[in-house]
Amino acid sequence: MFFYVSDDTFTLKEDRVIEICKKILERKLNITWFAISRVNCVSEEILYWMRKAGCIQISYGVESGSEKIRNCLNKNIKTHDIKKAFELTTKYGILARAYFIYGSPGESWATIQKTIDLMHVIRPMSTIFYILDLFPGTALYSDFKKKFKISDNIWLQQIEDIMYFETDPRLSKDTILAFGEKLRREYYGNLHRYVDSIELLDKKDFYELHSGFCSRLGMTFSHGDYARIDIVKEKEKTAEKLFKRALGYYPDHRAYLGLGIIKQKDRAFDESIRILSEGIKCFPDSEPLNTCLGISYMNLGQYGKALSCLLKFPDSKETVPYIVSCYKALGDSEKESAFLEKLRNIELL
What we know:
This protein is α/β, with parallel strands linked by helices. The chain has helices at about 15-25, 45-50, 65-70, 80-90, 110-120, 140-150, 175-195, 205-220, 235-250, 255-265, 270-280, 285-300, 305-310, 320-330, 335-349, and strands at about 1-5, 30-35, 55-65, 95-100, 125-130. Among the domains are: about 1-135 and about 170-195, Alpha-Beta Horseshoe (pyruvate-formate lyase- activating enzyme); about 200-250. The chain has 15 helices and 5 strands. The chain has a 5-stranded parallel beta sheet. Helix 1 links the parallel strand 1 and strand 2.
């Protein structure tokens, strides 16, 4: 079960958060969850209990590497608080996500570079980059109304938002787009290096949790968001490192599967078989592991061994096509026909 605590004041009262986490553990709730926090509202103790209770990601509003711009946005946080929060969050095996805003008052290539410099220091494993919007209730919105002598009736018009840069002659649309492109290229182009710098807490009671953290992150490079972004470098190499690191901590289903698939793609079928077989010893009833192992055997022409894996799931839409292929390769037309009929029936359901 998964849920998202979408409340940026959640960590303001440390005792309350720790109490909630202890209750989750007492009730043995098998859950994972995301949270939001200010960077100056986390400590080692709160992160310890949050991770133990299933928290796998915390999002922080960093906004800018320029303290001057953060002050302009009424973001009362210091650079050292940002650095500490990201270091500790990653240390406990929680994915630290950073929200950045660009196109703020006083934004320039110099302030964008400060954001890039800070990003390279805190090395977030996930980011979202926003162009500054003006929202009712903020000081910038009030300034906007005074400057242009308008009222809240502006929202009666067919507009979705008010971008700050549209009100500032010093910032053009082309400049804003260039800022965003530069930030994203710097982030995604260095993401593989960020992964190499991850330092996790060396405590045995966290090893299983660390394994989950590494395998989950590995999947984002091999099959998830980062796999689909062209400018992310060394995707499969990074994923492989993370899967191996996960298994160095604790047996993990995702890591065995991800590593086995990578070896299949590399046509290293013997190595894929070794890894997947090891995984099945830990997770014998896993359909994905058995299916992938069967596919590796098929690629080596070992159809009998492939069937020993695939026939564990004779009614699965995923495995039956491979079973059909195995019987066809073995020249067993009777069983091939039987499973073809079964496949048609499955597809009709």
